[in-house]
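seq:
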Amino acid sequence: MSFAGIAGNREVITALTVELSHRPSHAYMLAGPRGVGKALVAAGLAHSILCERSPGVGFCCTPESCPPRDAPASPRGRAEAPSTSRCQCCTACVQVAAGVHPDFNYVARYANRVEVLIEQVRDLIERLGVRPMRGDRRVAILDDAETLNLPAQNALLKTLEEPPGHTIIFVVTDSERALLDTVRSRLRPVRFGPLTVAEISGVLAARAALPPERAQALARLARGSISRALALAEGNEPPVRGLLEALSRARVLDFAGAQAIAQDFFGSRESATGNFELIARILEEMLCFKLLGAELNAPSPETARIMADIAQALDATTIARLLEAALQAAGAIEAMANSRLQAEQWWMAAGETLRGE
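struct:
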């Protein structure tokens, strides 16, 4: 993956590539919000290390010229070696892109699993113990690391404590707090921030062929994530209306009602984090509307009307308190607190705040 094709976090990418070319660490933790390009950067770094034609930041593989990215997956979950008749990349880059390079390993959560399995981690550790076959380095990417359970993290720990001298490991996580302190302490942290509205809207205009106004609106709703923005562009609207309806009746919520909302919108850690961030975004829009008279950013005029009605019925202090509590709940869930319990507590507290208790 060419670094030129990755939006945002340019300073992070530049600093990391310079470090790798001079004095690399044995293991890195690429941490930041979901959908900001962490795994793409990790893949680019693998190319930059293993490319045989022009290693470094100018590695030869580009998305436009390397068809192996669409290669079919084998029964073991690894892509089969593709034809290279239309590809101008070197053999090593083709193999990295296809997932068949002998010195490259990629591990991520299976689609039907909630966590990276300890068997996957053990297999990775075994592979890293073998000396490189083609070059000087072995490169491994451990994606979805926030889903590693405690036994899997403990299994990985010994490799991080006594790493093979020929290996560089990139641990990619949406939540560094989900990793054990002992694991984090042995990883060189590289933190990614959310993307700007301009960066996301530019990607939407180029990849989804959206008009500028629509791209800008979706970019603001995406909360710094390109993957979320692309999902919105494909019609996967966030549950703004449902959350607004729940907020409008929060004043009369009882515990059973809070439980039902928690079940509907906050059943998993991923949905809970995303929906608390969405609530915070909605409340931020309301606060700007209330204090500054700013135009409300919403998926539809009807949704904007509902937001305006709720904002007008509340004072700015109440909106700010709800916003702060939503961000605190999102942070607690990221730190592995129970998502449904956090949701139940937030909605009960929201009802008390709206009743002036």
